[in-house]
Task: structure prediction
Amino acid sequence: MKKLEEYVRSIPDFPEPGIIFRDVTSVLQDADGLSLAIDTMQDLVKDLEYDVVVGAESRGFIFGTPIAYNQHKPFVLIRKKGKLPCETVETSYELEYGKATIEMHKDSIKPGQKVLIVDDLIATGGTTEAMIRLVESLGGEVVGVVVLMELAGLNGREKIKDYCLKSAIIYPGK
Result:
């Protein structure tokens, strides 16, 4: 059986020279790769106690929903501003190229609920930090974050050092 890293396609010089783009679509397009990714991420958090799984649009949905399903937990969406129909809470954060705003339904997390955040990637940590702020603004307690890939060279782990971050694959560079 292949290792999880072998399912990730690495594309040099994308989106600019010197960057190695780690493509998650190659994992998703292979049934064995997808299964291994979900199983590995789920195994990384097997000792965490949580009530709710939260994932950000869109790849957080892909990896978070099967984990929630397998553990018989609810799944909560975090989306780009303007995509959710009910009353929401929102937070903005800095990106390399500007600013972004994400939101979630105001009634999606109850005070005191323990929350697992799931995403495909942590790079600089801005999106993850924003997701944590949203959950905490509703009274939730983030007990862990699990990602498929971590780009350690971009130091995202430092932004969320007070939270339990588990990464299925850690790449040392950018």
